[in-house]
TrEMBL record:
Ni(2+) binds at residue 2. Involved in the maturation of [NiFe] hydrogenases. Required for nickel insertion into the metal center of the hydrogenase. Belongs to the HypA/HybF family. This is Hydrogenase maturation factor HypA. Pfam families: HypA. GO terms for molecular function: nickel cation binding; zinc ion binding. It comes from the Bacteria. The keyword Cell division does not apply. Keywords: Metal-binding, Nickel, Zinc. It comes from Aquella oligotrophica. Transmembrane segments: none annotated. One of its GO terms (biological process) is protein maturation.
C-alpha cells in the first residue's frame, strides 16, 4: 500500500507544475533507485488507479531504474551494490559505505500532447 501513496505524491508533484495543463499530460517519466525500497510491480499496478482518481486515466507511467552505486569508507572502492548490506568486493567490509546513487525517486519529465 506504500506504493499507492507514492503514486499520489508523484501525480500531485506533476500537477503543481503550472506550465502544463492536466488534460495535456500523456506520460510521467520517473527514475527509481534499485535500492529505494519501492516495489516496481506494485507501483505500476496502483498508478492507473490513482491516475483515474485525478482524472488522468490515460496517463502512462514510464520508469527508469538507477543502479545502486556506493563508495566503501574503508578502502575507497566504488562499486555496484546489488543487495543492501552486501560486503565490499575489495576489503569485505559490511555496510561501511556511502550511497552515490540508487536510493532516489525522481520525477524526470512529463510528456504532453
Amino acid at each position: 500500500m506504500h506504493e499507492f501513496s507514492l503514486c499520489e505524491g508523484i501525480i500531485k508533484q506533476v500537477l503543481k507544475q503550472k506550465t502544463i495543463l492536466p488534460e495535456d499530460i500523456v506520460s510521467i517519466n520517473i527514475a527509481i533507485g534499485e535500492l529505494a525500497g519501492v516495489d516496481i510491480d506494485s507501483l505500476q499496478f496502483w498508478f492507473p488507479v490513482v491516475a483515474a482518481k485525478f482524472q488522468l486515466a490515460d496517463v502512462k507511467l514510464k520508469i527508469d531504474i538507477i543502479p545502486a552505486r556506493v563508495i566503501c569508507k574503508s578502502c575507497n572502492t566504488e562499486f555496484h551494490l546489488q543487495k543492501l548490506f552486501d560486503p565490499c568486493p575489495v576489503c569485505s567490509a559490511y555496510a561501511n559505505y556511502d550511497f552515490l546513487s540508487g536510493r532516489e525517486l525522481l520525477v524526470k519529465s512529463v510528456s504532453a500532447k
